[in-house]
Design brief:
This protein has helices at residues 4-11, 17-26, 107-116, 118-144, 147-157, 167-174, 178-192, 196-206; strands at residues 28-32, 37-39, 47-53, 56-61, 67-73, 79-80, 93-96, 100-106. The protein is α+β, with helices and mostly antiparallel strands. Strands 1-8-3-6 form a four-stranded antiparallel beta sheet. Strands 2-7-4-5 form a four-stranded antiparallel beta sheet. It is globular and about 55 Å long.
């Protein structure tokens, strides 16, 4: 059975008892169906969504109506948030890509606790740095790597997600068309048919 206290103690590695108690008391577990919009671009995000189970994606809509996937959240303990500072309007839309189990906290509580607790502030800074590092990895790959390199990077950094999310969303995230992604997946499956050494050779060629 899921325990909010255990989530904050073990999942987020918090140790201050009064902080854990406040977070556990004010958190809610929310079951959300696939395809629900959690946050709309431009909206002030009043709630933070921590992943327990499921897949969430962030995306933007370009002026021409094109839907571009910006990020995925699916690892236990990761937070779905549309802006770094927690106070301004969200820069992205956030929607569920599967039925999700989320731990929900008021953003105002986190902002308040950051002023009270050095531990919470350090956790926020840690999550922020992890998010920024991930963001720059993604952008560098998008700008400087081939389509195959980007796909192999995705497989290594987002294990199992390829089977949980539709091709068009992953293709959008990787800056390619769904048809290109399908060709890459087929090519890699063909190589895997020759054994793991062949797949390693493909990786050595593209990296």
């Amino acid at each position: 059975m899921f325990s909010a206290r255990m989530f904050f103690e073990k999942g987020l590695c918090l140790s201050e008892e009064h902080i854990i108690t406040r977070l556990a008391d004010e958190s809610k577990i929310k079951m959300v169906k696939k395809g629900r919009l959690l946050v709309e671009e431009g909206e002030i995000q009043s709630l933070l969504f921590f992943m327990i189970e499921g897949v969430v994606r962030g995306y933007v809509i370009k002026a021409d109506g094109q839907d571009i996937t910006d990020c995925f959240v699916y690892k236990y303990g990761d937070v779905a948030v549309g802006i770094n500072g927690l106070t301004g309007p969200s820069r992205i839309n956030i929607e569920t890509m599967s039925d999700c189990k989320l731990l929900v906290l008021p953003a105002s509580l986190i902002l308040s606790l950051m002023e009270e607790s050095q531990e919470v502030l350090q956790l926020y800074n840690k999550l922020l740095l992890i998010g920024l590092d991930r963001h720059w990895q993604e952008k560098i790959n998008l700008l400087s790597c081939s389509a195959m390199q980007r796909y192999l990077w995705f497989l290594e950094n987002y294990p199992n997600l390829i089977d949980l999310v539709g091709n068009k969303y992953i293709a959008s995230f990787l800056g390619m068309t769904p048809a290109t992604l399908s060709r890459l997946r087929r090519r890699l499956r063909e190589m895997e048919g020759f054994g793991i050494r062949a797949l390693d050779r493909v990786k050595s060629i593209y990296f």
